[in-house]
């Protein structure tokens, strides 16, 4: 009997704990119910009134806004095997051209640097930034280094980025994301798109609990927050800041935009910008492919037709309890404890309400876990009392308390509502199977949040100050993109493998080549390899075919249909158009960004071949040059042949020699070191919209001086043979 007495005493104490926990849940649930009511009232009004008057905006409207320069900032510490694939996939799939990716690395992380270097070699708009201090520092510190590198690049390329976009190394970016940011960046200062975690095995409750939380928060809570308060917390990924916002942050931080003492600098920035009166928006913009009959499929799976196709960020989240607890404890310290120190209660009661919602987790995470433990005990008591013969009526201790009974019934309703809301928002994007699984995952998520809360408090107690807690990086996974990231072979290596050069000859060439001319061009110019040899090496490097062309024999109707600005911008010539697919000729390997841009601009499938050096150059001068030649070299050669000054065989020989030694002005500038390839690509995008010659454009925009222009033109003239002189020498 003494055991029964002790146990009864314990249950009496548990009853009062249960009353207290039930009151806490009731208060928190009222808060959540308010958000639910606002969301569904707003949803109903917009569905039956607003959208009846104003149809949904079509994704095609995003193309009407001219492409502005956008910069993507990616911090990377110990991201080998992740950052390279992420950058490659982004650069290959984004439906946009006028953007650059800046990856922040650390001097003591050579493996990540190597990964980024390999991608930079293939994509001219990806730039490696090496932070000033060894890592790991913090995400904010890395972003500050990246931002400084962006400003330096702006000076070199004489451009100003309109938007600055945050992403992590594990992000998979929607192809239309930059189109959306480009459309809004002149109207809004902080633009946030939803984050939807990738699915793992259904049994991985840890990773999949993130799926449930983000589906509801980014499907409902942030929508209501933006509608009521006009304030949007950045998720740290899929966030675009306007130039005005970034400059304001830099000025506010005395040259430093991101708070290096904060573990959640992205959350912090949303409030800083709101205090400055800047406009913030959370955008759920669907891109619907009307050519595919997806409606029936999405209905069967339970997905919402529009909500399941929104522009969003996809990524994998931690799949072990330990890594999830580490990540969430960092969020709790940054948002709750550091956030309270940095952003105390304001004079705006609406902002205070959402600050309360952000911070109440430090209480409700404990409350939810304790409530689960109490619920488990009450369930066992109920089973004992109903299925054990002559059982003690322990449940009467709780049933006698009217307040507790009423609270339990009310909270049961609230809990049912929570489950319905969770199922709905998970189902709209992931389907009904994941929606139903979100219920058992709800309890597992409570357990992880409890552990994260406990770890966060323990870390703060150990350090004595939330700002002293060190940045705790999360290990990232990246989805397979169909093969390993391949580094590009160097041209010299290919020439050696083809037995066209020895290592000694290549080293000699690198030492003695003429300043202002690239190594491949110089090798051809010196007769060490033929232009065909060099073209085959380039074709192998780019994994495309090689062929010879006569640019003067291209069908004039094909040239007429091919815009001049595109031909000069990408240094390509159209050579064939079959079954709606355009084949182009290029003297260099075209990166996937340029190929995708060409396909969009020409509204056609694109393929290309590498042709020997000079063949595209003479073709561009013949068909498109904005500065017309005084005398066409081909015409001079034909006259010399027809008048008998030289033979037909000699004429063909001279033309091959002349062509192989022609090169574009932009190549000279890059080889002279006056402008790098990445800056040149940005400059050419600006130049494409003008009628000026490239040289005049560069000088007028102060990208190069008149002296540099004259130097490059003089070197180009010196290295390129004159057809007059070649004919005269051959006729002697």
From TrEMBL:
<feature type="transmembrane region" description="Helical">
    <location>
        <begin position="16"/>
        <end position="41"/>
    </location>
</feature>
<dbReference type="InterPro" id="IPR007831">
    <property type="entry name" value="T2SS_GspE_N"/>
</dbReference>
<protein>
    <submittedName>
        <fullName>Phage adsorption protein NrfB</fullName>
    </submittedName>
</protein>
<dbReference type="Pfam" id="PF05157">
    <property type="entry name" value="MshEN"/>
</dbReference>
<dbReference type="Pfam" id="PF13632">
    <property type="entry name" value="Glyco_trans_2_3"/>
</dbReference>
<dbReference type="InterPro" id="IPR029044">
    <property type="entry name" value="Nucleotide-diphossugar_trans"/>
</dbReference>
<keyword id="KW-0812">Transmembrane</keyword>
<keyword id="KW-1133">Transmembrane helix</keyword>
<dbReference type="InterPro" id="IPR037257">
    <property type="entry name" value="T2SS_E_N_sf"/>
</dbReference>
<feature type="transmembrane region" description="Helical">
    <location>
        <begin position="423"/>
        <end position="444"/>
    </location>
</feature>
<feature type="domain" description="Glycosyltransferase 2-like">
    <location>
        <begin position="164"/>
        <end position="383"/>
    </location>
</feature>
<dbReference type="InterPro" id="IPR001173">
    <property type="entry name" value="Glyco_trans_2-like"/>
</dbReference>
<keyword id="KW-0472">Membrane</keyword>
<feature type="transmembrane region" description="Helical">
    <location>
        <begin position="362"/>
        <end position="384"/>
    </location>
</feature>
<feature type="domain" description="Type II secretion system protein GspE N-terminal">
    <location>
        <begin position="547"/>
        <end position="629"/>
    </location>
</feature>
């Amino acid at each position: 009997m003494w055991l029964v007495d002790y146990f009864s005493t314990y249950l009496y104490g548990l009853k009062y704990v249960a009353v207290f926990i039930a009151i806490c849940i009731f208060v928190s649930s009222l808060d959540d119910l308010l958000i639910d009511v606002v969301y569904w009232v707003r949803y109903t009004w917009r569905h039956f009134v607003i959208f009846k008057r104003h149809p949904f905006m079509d994704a095609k409207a995003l193309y009407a806004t001219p492409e502005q320069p956008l910069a993507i900032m990616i911090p990377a510490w110990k991201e080998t095997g992740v950052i390279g694939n992420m950058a490659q996939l982004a650069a290959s799939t984004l439906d946009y051209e006028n953007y650059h990716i800046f990856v922040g690395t650390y001097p003591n992380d050579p493996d990540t640097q190597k990964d980024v270097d390999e991608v930079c070699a293939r994509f001219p708009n990806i730039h490696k930034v090496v932070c000033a201090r060894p890592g790991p520092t913090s995400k904010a510190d890395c972003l500050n280094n990246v931002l400084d590198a962006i400003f330096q690049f702006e000076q070199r390329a004489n451009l100003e980025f309109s938007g600055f976009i945050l992403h992590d190394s594990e992000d998979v970016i929607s192809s239309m994301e930059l189109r959306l940011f480009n459309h809004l960046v002149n109207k809004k200062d902080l633009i946030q798109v939803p984050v939807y975690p990738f699915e793992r095995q259904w049994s991985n409750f840890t990773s999949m609990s993130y799926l449930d939380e983000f589906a509801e928060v980014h499907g409902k809570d942030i929508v209501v927050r933006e509608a009521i308060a006009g304030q949007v917390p950045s998720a740290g990924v899929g966030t675009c800041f306007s130039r005005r916002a970034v400059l304001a942050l830099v000025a506010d931080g005395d040259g430093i935009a991101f708070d290096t003492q904060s573990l959640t600098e992205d959350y912090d920035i949303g409030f800083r910008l709101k205090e400055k009166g800047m406009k913030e928006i959370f955008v759920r913009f669907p891109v619907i492919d009307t050519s595919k009959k997806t409606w029936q499929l999405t209905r069967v799976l339970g997905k919402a037709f529009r909500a399941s196709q929104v522009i969003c960020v996809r990524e994998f989240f931690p799949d072990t309890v330990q890594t999830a607890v580490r990540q969430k404890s960092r969020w709790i310290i940054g948002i709750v404890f550091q956030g309270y120190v940095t952003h105390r209660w304001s004079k705006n009661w609406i902002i205070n309400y959402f600050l309360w919602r952000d911070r109440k987790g430090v209480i409700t995470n404990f409350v939810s876990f304790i409530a689960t433990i109490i619920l488990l005990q009450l369930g066992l008591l109920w089973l004992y009392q109903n299925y054990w013969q002559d059982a003690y009526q322990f449940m009467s201790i709780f049933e006698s308390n009217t307040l507790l009974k009423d609270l339990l019934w009310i909270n049961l309703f609230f809990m049912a509502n929570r489950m319905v809301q969770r199922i709905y928002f998970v189902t709209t994007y992931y389907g009904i199977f994941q929606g139903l699984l979100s219920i058992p995952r709800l309890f597992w998520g409570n357990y992880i949040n409890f552990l994260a809360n406990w770890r966060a408090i323990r870390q703060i107690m150990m350090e004595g100050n939330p700002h002293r807690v060190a940045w705790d990086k999360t290990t990232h996974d990246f989805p397979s993109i169909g093969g390993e990231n391949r580094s590009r072979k160097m041209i010299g290596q290919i020439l050696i493998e083809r037995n066209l050069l020895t290592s000694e000859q290549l080293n000699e060439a690198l030492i003695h080549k003429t300043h202002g001319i690239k190594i491949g061009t110089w090798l051809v110019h010196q007769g060490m390899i033929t232009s065909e040899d060099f073209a085959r090496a380039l074709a192998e490097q780019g994994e495309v075919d090689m062929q010879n062309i006569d640019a003067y024999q291209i069908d004039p109707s094909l040239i007429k249909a091919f815009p001049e600005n595109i031909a000069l911008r990408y240094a390509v010539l159209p050579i064939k158009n079959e079954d709606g697919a355009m084949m182009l000729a290029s003297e260099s390997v075209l990166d996937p960004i340029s190929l995708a841009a060409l396909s969009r601009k020409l509204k056609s499938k694109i393929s290309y071949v590498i042709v020997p050096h000079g063949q595209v150059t003479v073709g561009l001068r013949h068909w498109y040059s904005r500065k017309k030649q005084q005398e066409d070299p081909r015409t001079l050669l034909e006259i010399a042949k027809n008048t008998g000054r030289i033979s037909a065989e000699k004429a063909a020989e001279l033309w091959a020699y002349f062509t192989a030694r022609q090169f574009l002005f932009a190549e000279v500038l890059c080889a002279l070191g006056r402008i790098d390839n990445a800056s040149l690509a940005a400059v050419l995008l600006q130049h494409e919209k003008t009628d000026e010659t490239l040289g005049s454009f560069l000088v007028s925009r102060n990208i190069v001086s008149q002296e540099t222009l004259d130097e490059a033109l003089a070197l180009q003239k010196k290295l390129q043979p004159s057809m007059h002189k070649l004919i005269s020498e051959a006729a002697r």
